[in-house]
Design goal:
7 helices; about 170 residues; about 5% strand; Four Helix Bundle (Hemerythrin (Met), subunit A); mainly alpha
């Protein structure tokens, strides 16, 4: 039987990253059609103290790869945060998908009780069981950032809807 944590993480990450990729394609086409500098969409944010759309996509990918890696018991791959264009973001999504596609359900066996130690951007450690890490931390963080990237683009006139956000399932 395939691990519940594998089924609850990798396919979900793949589905929403695919949707995000499609939304970015529509955003780039929107910018071209309307004569908008792509950087205006990439640097857009919902409020001044929030991350830009570009950074929302980076962090979305970071959560997909880091949560998957930790649950699988493998090292989290490091990605440079150098993306500046829609093409760069598409490449980051593709790299993230390639990484999680390489993980097997067998690597997630026992992940529910595996201890996960995270520092969540601060020097303070937080300890989770694998199940708690995925369900109470990893998935909510992932969904927040992918939703915010979508919302920024929608707020800026990109014609996307729920079907685009959800992706193919």
């Amino acid at each position: 039987m395939t691990s519940f944590l594998y089924l609850s993480s990798v396919p979900v990450f793949k589905q929403l990253l695919g949707g995000l990729s499609d939304v970015l394609t529509k955003a780039e086409a929107h910018a071209t059609a309307k004569g908008i500098d792509p950087a205006a969409l990439l640097q857009a944010r919902l409020f001044p103290d929030m991350f830009t759309m570009l950074r929302q996509v980076r962090v979305t990918c970071d959560f997909a790869k880091s949560v998957s890696a930790r649950l699988a018991g493998v090292e989290v791959p490091a990605f440079d945060d150098t993306e500046q264009t829609f093409a760069d973001l598409q490449a980051r999504i593709a790299k993230t998908l390639a990484f999680i596609d390489g993980l097997t359900p067998e690597q997630f066996e026992g992940a529910a009780t595996r201890e996960i130690v995270s520092q969540a951007g601060t020097p303070k450690e937080k300890r989770f069981s694998g199940q708690s890490y995925l369900l109470n931390y990893g998935l909510p963080q992932f969904f927040f950032h992918v939703t915010t990237a979508y919302a920024i683009l929608r707020h800026n006139g990109v014609e996307v809807g729920k079907k685009d956000y959800v992706g193919t399932y």
